[in-house]
Amino acid sequence: MTPASEATLRAVGLVVLRSDRLVLDGVELELGRGGALLLTGPNGAGKSTLLRALAGLCPLAAGRIEWDGIDTRDAPTEHAGRLAYLGHQDALKPGLSLRENLHLTARTGGGDTVAALAAFGLEELAALPVRLLSAGQRRRAALARVLLADVPLWLLDEPSLGLDSAALVRLGVVLARHRDAGGMVIATTHVGLPLPDAAVLDLAA
Ligand SMILES: Nc1ncnc2c1ncn2[C@@H]1O[C@H](COP(=O)(O)OP(=O)(O)OP(=O)(O)O)[C@@H](O)[C@H]1O
C-alpha cells in the first residue's frame, strides 16, 4: 500500500448497502499515482460493489472517498471526469461500427482512436458493427474505450474476461504504460491480471 502521505485516492470506512443488505462494511484503501490494486474475493464478496462505489455509482451508507484529500461527493463532476469505469457490460453501441464507437468516446476524452485500436489489435475490425464482434473482441473494444478516455483512474471489473492469451499480453502492456504515466488501476479478478507489484485487497478477509 502507498504511504498515507502519498495517496491520491483514499477510501475511509466505506459502508455500502444494496437493497438493505450490508455488502461493504468499513472498507479502507489507498492508492498513489502509478499504483495498482487488485480486488479479490469469492462471488458476492462485494468487489463490483466497491468499484461502483469508487466510481460514484453506488451511494455510501457511511465513510468517504477522497481524491487528494477532498471528499469526492463535494466534487462529483470532477471525480466522474477523472475516472473510466469498465463494468461487466461493455457499454458499446451495437449498431455502430467499432470505429464510430471509439470516435464517440474520443469526442469527450480527446484520445487517439487509431492508437487505441492498435493497442488492442483491433485495426482490421474497425469497420464492423459492434454487434458482429465476438465476446473477446467486444471486451478488447471496451478496453480500447477506457484507454481513449485519457483519465488517471481506471476502475476495471474483470477486464480479462473472454480475452485470449495475446490480448492478455496487450492488456498488460497498456496497463503498464498507463501506470508509467502516473495512471492508477483498480481491478477485480478471479484469475489474476498482468499487473506486477499490484497491492491486493481481499474482500473475503
Ligand atoms: N443491485 C443489487 N441489489 C441488491 N443486491 C445486490 C445488487 N447488486 C449486487 N448485490 C448483492 O451484493 C453482493 C455483492 O455483489 P457484487 O456484485 O459486488 O459481488 P462480487 O464480489 O463482484 O461478485 P462476483 O465475483 O460474482 O462478480 C451480492 O450478494 C449481490 O447479490
TrEMBL record:
Pfam families tied to this protein: ABC_tran
InterPro entries from the UniProt entry: AAA+_ATPase (IPR003593), ABC_transporter-like_ATP-bd (IPR003439), ABC_transporter-like_CS (IPR017871), ABC_transptr_haem_export_CcmA (IPR005895), P-loop_NTPase (IPR027417)
PANTHER family tied to this protein: ABC TRANSPORTER I FAMILY MEMBER 1
GO biological process, any: cytochrome complex assembly
Keywords: ATP-binding, Cytochrome c-type biogenesis, Membrane, Nucleotide-binding, Translocase, Transport
Protein's UniProt name: Heme ABC exporter ATP-binding protein CcmA
GO molecular function: ATP binding; ATP hydrolysis activity; transmembrane transporter activity
SUPFAM superfamilies in UniProt: P-loop containing nucleoside triphosphate hydrolases (SSF52540)
Originating organism: Lichenicola cladoniae
Residues in ABC transporter domain copies: 9-203
Classification via NCBIfam families: ccmA
